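Readers of this paper often ask what the protein records in our data store actually look like. Nothing more is needed to write down the fold, since each code stands for a local backbone conformation. Below, we set out a record of this kind in full and without editing:
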Amino acid sequence: MNKTALYSRVSTLEQAREGYSIGAQKEKLEAYAVAKGLDNPEHYSDPGISGSTTNRPELQRMIKDIKDKKVSHVIVYKLDRLSRSQRDTLLLVQDLFNMYDVKFISLEESIDTGTPMGIAMIGVLSAFAELERSTFKVRSLMGREERAKKGLYHGGGNYDPLGYTYEDGKLIIDPYEAEIVKEMYKLYVSGNSMNTVSEKMKTKYPDRVKSFTLVKGVLSHILYVGKVTFNGNTYDGVHEAIIDENTWRKAQQIRKSRAVGATKTNKRKGLLLGKVYCARCGARLQRVVSGSRKYRYVYYKCYSQNRSRSTASMIKDRNCKLPAQQAEKLEELVLNHLKGLEFENFETKEKDKNAQISNREDQIKKLQAQSERIMDLYTLGMIDVEAVKDKNAPILKRIEVLQDEIEELSITHDVDEAQDTLANFNWENASKEEQILLVDTLVDRIEVDNDDVRIYLSF
């Protein structure tokens, strides 16, 4: 025997106080079914779940029962209890309920799809619900754009950018954190890789710097030169700059040059040039050739020991005493290190990375659900647009941070690709260009302190 499905949903405690609680809905739905003499009423209830998705346990159970031809009627207290999306509402009513000859009734709007007027009303009311949600999104975007044009940062909440606090709608410099930002830029433009800057900052300031993503954001965000951005446009900010524009531009040039990477037509003579640094003073190591044709000697030597005026900008400490490194020995050490890499630890890191991505995705889903509940309150007229903006600001900012972290976790540490590269590399017959390409692809930075050689990989 077919049954009457009584579907109820609530997404906020506030709705419950306004009379939309699951209990209140059930009572009214059951009373209507009894009054109309509908057979076998059965409740399907999704408490605390947004109406923006149809991925709700009880809704899915009801859909399955409909497809199994166990349901003759579906009754809801209000149309938006079924769905807040016009598309989903029409799909459910027209493509599912009608297909299985299920009558749909909404008490609040007096809709009964057993009548032509009821079918027409479904489309009209769903369109209005969708329009209201779209209007809110447009207003929210317009508000953020207007703030940007006025030079105001659109973030805030509990996720202030490093170096600033967010007070009364404006960014105010935090002196302690501002010094951390300046130190990051100083390290980066002096030749340290972003990964090295990250490790040094996390060690020195563990209470403020906790991730590579934070460091990457600081070293790339134009916010630190006193500007704000929105939707691809840049505006002069009302907040004070922490970094001067020349330093910021230099950092961006370094980022761009390192992102380009090596090409297969690389013709440089030194296998490790551009990758190897002095661990004592931070300067690069240059390749030096001496002796005669018969007795030729090739070394890597710290630039700080070069007295040429043309390389003055490369000198970090004129008193640096790093011994010259025999090129053949150092290059062989690096290649043997790559050849002997064991990937068990990397696979563990990869699993950890995937777990971190999954964790952040779960957080985003929960935050999106919170945002949808706030929208539900707005749709019900229980709060105004300004209140929605205030409540949503920290949620949207946190989602943005999590999405950036997921992107960073997804594009770095490509262990599988590195493993394939090494497995297919012709160690015995590789040309110099192929060896250079291998090093450029897999090595981020090499730091040398006499016999102590530290190799930092790019994956």
Summary: The chain has a mean pLDDT of 80.
